[in-house]
Amino acid sequence: MKKGLVLLLVLLVLTACGQQKKDEPNKEVSGQMGEKTVVLTVDPVQKGSSVQFNMSLKNESDRDIEFTFNTSQKFELSVYDENGNEKYRYSKDRMFTQAIQSFVLKANETYDFQDTWSNGVEPGTYEAVVTFKGKAEGLKQITEKKTFQVK
Fold first, then answer.
1. pLDDT tens-place string over residues 49-59
2. pTM (2 d.p.)
């Protein structure tokens, strides 16, 4: 009897793990939300031997949008060289608070943030990929890519 219950429990767990949530949005490069539009921009600026990334998230709709975060990390920034090798990642060697947080981006409001890449910067062509980590109802994950030069 115990073996039967254990086997049934294992089968239920395996069945549940194999199911995909159908209500979660796909991970795509998008900021469209019906008539709502959110625009993410990134502007890499070389400052001596480092690169400062000025990023903005703008709510171009006429409605407020509430973003929810699973951690204190608001964005991810990765920099890749011409060969696709990762040269920098914002979250590498950082720790983030594991707590649900949220903020409201009001209609036509802009949320500005920045980061600086200062170790291992060499001349060349790079691609910055920024992903905003906040989730909003009906909004797909927002990602922006930008190619830039370091002299």
1. 999 999 999 99
2. 0.76
